[in-house]
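Here is one chain, start to finish.
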Amino acid sequence: MRKRNFFFVALLAAGLTLLPGTAPRPVDAQETITLRLATLAPRGSSWMRVFDAWNNTLRQRTDGRLQIRVYAGGSQGDERDVVRKIRIGQLDGAAVTSTGLSLIVRPVLVLQAPGVVESYQQLDRARSAMNDEFSQQFEANGVKLMGWGDVGEGRIFSNRPITRPQDLRSVRPWVWRDDSMFGTFLEVIGANGVRLGVPEVLPALSTGQIDTVVASATAASALQWHTRVTHVTEQANSFLIGATIISKQKFDSLPPDLQTALQETSDQAHTALVRRIRRDDGRYYRALTTRHGITAVDTSAHRSEWQDAARQTRERLAGRLYPRALMERVMAAARGR
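Its structure:
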């Protein structure tokens, strides 16, 4: 009887292996882990080209065990939506601007406070000096800072010449809904802005709800904002930054070799991203002011007015968005002191 039962069980087990989906997997089979990232950058933009290359390198490095899937063009919502989805596990990470970063670690905005950094060289020094400190703060808030990125030089795009700060009083400037910095700048100069999310900007430009935006030439081109403006400031008034973040819980769940591969390929990708954005931003600016008919506006005659408004803004924000001591440290690091 025991032999008969053993034979029956063995036959049943053998039969099950022939059923669809029940055959045991080979011991060396590996599932592909997909990291879900989101960004406002649209397909075909400078940012997405770098992310696509990063994904290809990562897949090759890990023999297809790890890949990233980027939901581009704001398909996952504005940056507040994206940060929320990371926190609840609907997304694993994102490439966000300083606005998105500030929803996690508010003092990071010091890197983009008016007049704190005045050149890319100063920005590189400041980020290098603050990298470890900010990385620890992000990890304490549940995300891993994978790499810094650039958005480009911030310029004022408008439908009339903006040469001095007070000119912004007579236009309808866009203020990002979650922004605290440009809104304060407008308060300092006595102007009022219209708060909107990024996906709302192009329709608002089309209807005249707003007629002025601060953006890099790369971003304005990628998001098609340049099609609704006629003027752009020749001099940049800020250096716009961002970074790629990934849920710390998700990162820590990866096997050690995949963590290493992800971080090393990320370092390479973000080095390439910074280099590419800085190159492309200049090219886009030249294209907009030559081939696309946008008029460049020289603001240099009123440089002192812009500097004074910037100083008042960063001073007013000290203690609210970032400690004053932090601002002073970052400014000193940026200037090599």
